[in-house]
Amino acid sequence: MTKNRKSEHQLIVQALNAAETNIRLAKQLLSGVRAEPPKTSPKELPGIVGTFDGENMLTKEGKKFAVNPNYASKSVLVYGDTLKRIEEGGREMFKQIERVKRQKVEGVLAKKDGKWVAVTPDGSYRVSPVAVEFYGGQEGGEVVVVLPLESKNVPYAALESIKKERPATAETAEKSAEAPRKTTARKKTAVRKVTKKKVEEKKPEEEKVEEKVEEFRHHPSGCGDDDLGLGMAFGAKDEGLGVL
Asked: 35 lies in a domain?
């Protein structure tokens, strides 16, 4: 066996040994893991079944079970959803086992007879006060509610969201305060520009008057400063009146 073949043989043996070690380790880990039992569907658990009417679970026998409003709000339970009242871990709770088809409708939050309602183009619907409080709703706020798809003629709607106005920040407040000051500054600048323009427009006229005065002073008639009068000021020479 040549030197190269011997080296390759050693590498193959090392790789096989490493593989066997890994396989033994994997088997040990696998034997220590206990298979978890499959989770049982709420539909298969024993319990009482009913439909959600907005506040309670109503059974076919006419029995009512109050549904925790926090659970109803968090799960966005819709009128007509099927619930099951079961016992789990020593506690009684509700599980949603079937959902009705849904539709979303926009509306406005209001109060009617002291209760929160969502007023929509299709009518008004009671909404959970817990959900309104959670979203920080106020009268007149824009809301999105969820109703059964097949019928809008129900007394209750699930509140999904409330549109909130963006709160004013220190930066926006500062900008709002600066706006009047900037407007005033622009007005002052405009006034200065107009005034400067008027002054510049007057300069040629004043220069013309000064030229006429100098011309009259040096007239051959020898009139001096004392002879200047209204005639000169209004261009008497140019009107043919002559100079006395």
From this structure: no
Do 90 and 106 fall into the same domain?
A: no
As a dihedral over the C-alpha atoms of residue 107, residue 113, residue 115, residue 121, rounded to 10 degrees, the angle is -10
Identify whether the C-beta of residue 139 lies closer than 8 Å to the C-beta of residue 107: no
Q: Is the pTM of this model over 0.70?
A: no
User: What are the phi and psi torsion angles at 118 (to 5°)?
Assistant: -110, 120
Q: Is 8 within a domain?
A: no
| Structural domain containing residue 216 | 182-233
Could you tell me which residues come within 8 angstroms of residue 70 by beta carbon, excluding any fewer than 6 positions away?
130
Successive 10-residue mean pLDDT values, the chain, 244 residues? 70 84 83 66 82 94 93 93 88 90 95 94 93 92 94 93 63 52 60 58 55 54 44 42 40
- Tokens 């209204």 locate to 230
Give the phi and the psi of residue 120 in degrees, each rounded to 5. Answer: -125, 170
Q: Is residue 52 part of a domain?
A: yes
The verdict on residue 30 lying in a domain is no
